[in-house]
Amino acid sequence: FYEPRVDAIIEPLPLPGVEAFASFVYGDHLWQSMLKFATYKGMDAMRKPRGISKAA
After folding, report:
1. Closest CA to 7 of 28, 31, 22
2. CA dist list (Å): 10 to 24, 42, 43, 45, 46
3. What single-letter DSSP state applies at residue 8?
4. Among candidates 3, 52, 49, which has minimal Cα distance to 23?
5. What is the pLDDT of residue 55?
6. H runs (alpha helix) in the chain
7. What is the DSSP letter of 47?
8. Of 25, 26, 37, 50, which cross-links 8 as Cys (Cβ 3.0–4.6 Å)?
9. What is the rounded CA–CA span in Å between residue 48 and residue 33?
């Protein structure tokens, strides 16, 4: 199992016939996914999305 570092920038591979997606910071994605669990409801304000410019 491979899990990237939280500051990793996830970018689409340039594959023919595959629609590209917007690049994102894995930590931002992880935090937003975590907030979907009832245990973490209401914690939105504890971490603001970092965005690519701060991770790069």
Report:
1. 28
2. 5, 26, 24, 23, 23
3. P
4. 52
5. 57
6. 26-34, 51-55
7. S
8. 26
9. 14
Q: How far is CA 38 from CA 18, 31, 43, in A?
A: 34, 13, 10
Q: Which residue has the tokens 């894995």?
A: 26
Reported residue count of the chain is 56
Beta-carbon contacts of 11 under 8 Å, excluding residues fewer than 6 positions away, are: 23
Handedness of CA 24, 28, 33, 36 (dihedral sign): negative
pLDDT per residue of the chain (56 residues) written in tens, 0 to 9: 789 999 999 999 999 999 999 999 999 999 999 999 999 988 988 888 888 876 56
pLDDT of residue 54: 64
